[in-house]
């Protein structure tokens, strides 16, 4: 059976007219909250594995249809994948699927370095998703419900009641939270300005943020990571002429993939998490001094990073987050070569300036100007920079209170926060731990909510096998 959507004729009326689950109640029902890449491909795998099993899957997302999440909803051709196409197959058993798909459409003739626009990947996944749902799977149905979830509560012994914003209530035997990243946290230094002058403060993770910026505005970008790179490239593609000033605590840009990335062969060295993160860092540095490529060492860590994180003592995790997280992020989550070249050109021309400093305050000035104060890194000197707009590129808020749904579930004891506020506390399988530390319900999370459990859990190469494994778990 194929795709059912609220947008199809008759379905919206059917849902609106009923306060119960619109699907038949005599089959196993798995509800997936969030239609980003992880949620969508989990539904794909469930449909593929269902065979003749009676099962229905509800893919619930407030967007129109399936957006695949914010990262892949962009249509800007300058927003490139930060992983080469050859490593981006959505299918575990077909590692060349995406690159073959691209080559059949002659896309790689235009993107010769192998890094394609993210909108291309979105088109690929949606095509594969639609193709799977058109395949025979007697008794298995995937339904897409474009609505937001306001609450999830335990119903009968092992089932859940899911309340939708529209007033509909669904009953599910298992729930998977695939909500993706939460909106960015407004830093304390900017809250007064954001509250009193909201038109001057935008978040680069929000749709339409650039529409409020004039071409000659001087823009202050809070953050220097991949979100800032996207923001700068967006403004450049719109013909923006004003100066961009990006500020972060360390002032570090993401490292670029080397142009010879195809020659990198994963290299593994023995790492001992029990000895601490600084010891592991020293082991990697010694390997580089002996001639190993650092990107080859990181590639060699890919398969074991979750195991290393899981076995790292709690105090060492905190040490890593305080001192090494930024260094890890800029080396692990790299820029495509073309993106790096564009950013470098903007820096050389004076269009983009990078500053290392800690934000102190932001205030409105006369006219349409603002002032942002910061302490320059390595000094006690306070400095300020003026501009017309402030754009938050600080990444998502990882605390549960950022999501009304997750906060409600936490209040009612269905889940609890990771000790380092990196999402939810869960088993390595994704099964959530409740307030008593138990995992006796069919309640799971996938993607960024598992950062505290797995650390690296959002890149497609990391998610690909994990989604397939979770689908098998849900059907046992």
Question: How would you describe what is shown here?
Answer:
- The two termini are 21 Å apart.
- The longest helix is centred in the last third of the chain and has 19 residues, at 314-332.
- The protein is 32% helix and 18% strand.
- The chain folds into 3 domains: 3-182 and 398-474, FAD/NAD(P)-binding domain (3-Layer(bba) Sandwich); 188-255 and 337-392, FAD/NAD(P)-binding domain (3-Layer(bba) Sandwich); 267-332, no CATH class.
- The protein is globular, with a radius of gyration of 23 Å.
- The chain has helices spanning 11-16, 37-50, 70-73, 97-104, 118-133, 191-196, 226-237, 277-289, 294-301, 305-311, 314-332, 337-349, 404-411, 451-454, 460-474, and strands at residues 3-5, 28-33, 55-61, 140-146, 149-154, 160-164, 169-172, 174-177, 201-203, 219-222, 244-248, 352-364, 370-376, 382-387, 389-392, 443-445.
Summarize the structure.
About 35% of the residues are buried.
At the fourth level of CATH, the homologous superfamily of the largest domain is FAD/NAD(P)-binding domain
Q: Mean pLDDT across all residues, rounded?
A: 88
Q: Give the CATH architecture of the largest domain.
A: 3-Layer(bba) Sandwich
Largest beta-sheet details: 7 strands, mixed
Strand order of the largest sheet: 9-15-10-11-12-13-14
- According to DSSP, the number of beta strands is 16
As a percent range, the share of helical residues equals 25-40%
Q: Which CATH first-tier class of the largest domain would you pick?
A: Alpha Beta
CATH topology of the largest domain: FAD/NAD(P)-binding domain
- Shape designation: globular
- Uncertain spans, ≥5 residues at pLDDT below 50? 1-23
């Amino acid at each position: 059976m194929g795709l059912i959507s609220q947008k199809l004729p008759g379905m919206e009326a059917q849902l609106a007219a009923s306060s119960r689950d619109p699907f038949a109640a005599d089959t196993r029902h798995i509800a997936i909250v969030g239609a980003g890449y992880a949620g969508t491909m989990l539904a794909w795998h469930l449909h593929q594995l269902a065979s003749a099993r009676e099962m229905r899957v509800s893919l619930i997302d407030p967007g129109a249809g399936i957006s695949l999440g914010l990262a892949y909803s962009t249509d800007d051709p300058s927003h490139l994948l930060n992983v080469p196409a050859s490593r981006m197959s959505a299918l575990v058993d077909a590692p060349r699927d995406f690159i073959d798909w691209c080559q059949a459409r002659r896309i790689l003739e235009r993107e010769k370095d192998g890094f394609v626009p993210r909108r291309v990947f979105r088109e690929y996944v949606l095509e594969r998703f639609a193709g799977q749902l058109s395949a025979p799977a007697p008794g298995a149905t995937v339904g897409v419900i474009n609505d937001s979830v306001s609450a999830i509560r335990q119903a009968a012994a092992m089932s859940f009641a899911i309340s939708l914003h529209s007033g509909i209530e669904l009953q599910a035997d298992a729930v998977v939270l695939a909500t993706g990243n939460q909106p960015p946290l407004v830093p304390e230094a900017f809250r007064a300005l954001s509250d009193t002058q909201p038109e001057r403060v935008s978040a680069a993770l929000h749709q339409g943020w650039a529409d409020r910026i004039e071409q000659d505005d001087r823009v202050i970008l809070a953050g220097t990571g991949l979100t800032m790179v996207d923001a700068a490239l967006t403004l450049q593609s719109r013909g923006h002429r004003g100066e961009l000033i990006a500020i972060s605590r360390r002032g570090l840009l993401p490292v670029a993939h080397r142009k010879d990335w195809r020659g990198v062969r994963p290299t593994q060295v023995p790492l001992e998490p029990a000895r601490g993160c600084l010891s592991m860092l020293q082991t990697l540095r010694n390997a580089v001094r002996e001639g190993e490529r650092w990107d080859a060492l990181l590639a060699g860590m890919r398969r074991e990073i979750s195991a290393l994180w899981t076995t790292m003592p709690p105090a060492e995790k905190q040490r890593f987050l305080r001192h090494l997280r930024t260094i890890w992020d800029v080396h692990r989550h790299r820029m495509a070569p073309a993106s790096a070249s564009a950013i470098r050109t903007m820096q050389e021309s004076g269009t983009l300036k990078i500053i290392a400093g800690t934000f102190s305050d932001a205030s409105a000035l006369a006219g349409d100007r603002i002032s942002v104060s910061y302490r320059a890194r390595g000094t006690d000197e306070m400095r300020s920079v003026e501009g017309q707009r402030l754009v938050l590129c600080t990444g998502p808020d990882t605390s549960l209170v950022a999501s009304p749904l997750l906060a409600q579930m936490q209040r009612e004891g269905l889940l609890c926060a990771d000790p380092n506020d990196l999402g939810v506390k869960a088993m390595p399988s994704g099964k959530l731990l409740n307030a008593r530390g138990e995992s006796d319900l069919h309640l799971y999370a996938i993607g960024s909510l598992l950062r505290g459990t797995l650390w690296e859990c959002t890149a497609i190469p990391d998610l690909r096998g994990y989604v397939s494994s979770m689908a098998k778990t849900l059907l046992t």
